[in-house]
Amino acid sequence: MRFLCHWAAALILFPVAGIATAADEACPALLDHRFPRLQDDQPQNLCQYRGKVVLVVNTASYCGFTGQYDGLEKMYARYKDQGLVVVGFPSNDFGSQEPGSNKEIAEFCRLTYGVKFPMLAKTDVVGSGTNPLYKQLASLTGERPKWNFHKYLIDRSGQKVLSFPSTTAPDSRSLVTAVEKALAARP
């Protein structure tokens, strides 16, 4: 019994080297943001995605690129178990193509495209009201969205970001290759 007490005390005083949990790791500054969830306005901390590859997309329901929801959902389903998270940010910044309320947008995404990847509340991705994540993404890549369905791919470390224009479809070779490469890399 005395041995067990000494062993337990040693673990408390001298944690096993090399063992770290996700809770022990600091949240990368890029992911250190909270946004309301689309469906119910509950705050979501993007730190929950640390250690994952994150594809951030500004979306709209009435756009020529709206069909990309289907490809984004397929990509999410295909790679989520390997650590990919697709995060949608509905925005009305381009051509007023996202005029609905959060509830209307959530219903449209669910009923029309079966979207299961995380969707956050409607936000600004350009202009004076740009949300802080999009400000950082634009600063890191030198590219801001020029239209709906612009994509930013954040690596597992939350440090490296790639930018893809709206014309890059979710099943395009360039995006799929970048996602697979990011998933294969370990921070």
From TrEMBL:
Signal peptide: which range, if any? 1-22
Q: Which Gene3D superfamilies match?
A: Glutaredoxin (3.40.30.10)
Q: Which InterPro entries match?
A: Glutathione_peroxidase, GPX_AS, Thioredoxin-like_sf, Thioredoxin_domain
What superkingdom does the record give?
Bacteria
Q: Which GO terms describe its biological process?
A: cellular response to oxidative stress
Q: Which residues form the active site?
A: 63
Keywords of the record, alphabetical order, are: Oxidoreductase, Peroxidase, Signal
Task: Keyword check for Protease, yes or no.
Answer: no
Give a single Pfam family match. Answer: GSHPx
UniProt GO molecular function: peroxidase activity
Keyword Signal listed: yes
Q: Which residues form the Thioredoxin domain?
A: 16-184
Q: Which family is it part of? A: Belongs to the glutathione peroxidase family.
Q: What is this protein called?
A: Glutathione peroxidase
Supply the source organism for this entry: Zoogloea dura
